[in-house]
Design goal:
There is one protein chain. With about 140 residues, the chain is an alpha+beta fold. Helix content is about 35%, strand content about 25%. A hairpin with a 4-residue loop joins strand 4 and strand 5. The protein starts with 8 loop residues before the first helix and ends in a 15-residue tail after the last helix. This is Roadblock/LC7 domain-containing protein. InterPro entries: Mycobact_SerProt_Inhib_Rv3364c, Roadblock/LAMTOR2_dom.
Length: about 140
């Protein structure tokens, strides 16, 4: 089980508060487990993290269509009625997800996400889980 990393909360808060109209920020492992969150309740963050695992997998499959791709997803952006969804690779086995309202500055949110990942990417990593004893 991946523990909630409370020491990341202030960094996620800084991202959310520095970009007007940012709603939720979630850090998740590649297998869809919530690692940290800001601006949302635990149940919503868990659902978002699980959905993101599927999206990053889909993005990896699409990357196979590019002849020189390394198969790794960097960023997915989805525009929806009412807002935007951003998913960015954030370290080995970790991702940063952001939900924002329609009027968000898309360039600013992308830049702030990249800055956050560059500053603390190694702290956002989620090492692969080893084989444990059978329960």
């Amino acid at each position: 089980m991946i523990q909630h990393r409370a020491n990341m909360d202030w960094m996620l808060k800084d991202l959310a508060e520095s970009v007007p109209q940012t709603r939720n920020v979630v850090v998740l492992s590649s297998d869809g487990l919530r690692m940290a969150q800001y601006g949302t309740d635990t149940d919503t963050a868990d659902r978002l993290a699980a959905a993101c695992a599927g999206l990053q997998s889909l993005a990896g499959a699409v990357s196979a269509e590019f002849p020189h791709s390394d198969g790794k997803m960097r960023m997915v952006v989805i525009e929806l009625d009412g807002g935007f969804f951003y998913l960015m690779a954030a370290g080995a086995g970790a991702y940063l997800a952001v939900l924002a309202d329609e009027g968000v500055d898309a360039g600013l949110i992308g830049m702030k996400m990249r800055d956050l990942v560059a500053r603390i990417g190694e702290h956002l990593s989620s090492p692969p889980r080893g084989e444990g004893p059978a329960a």
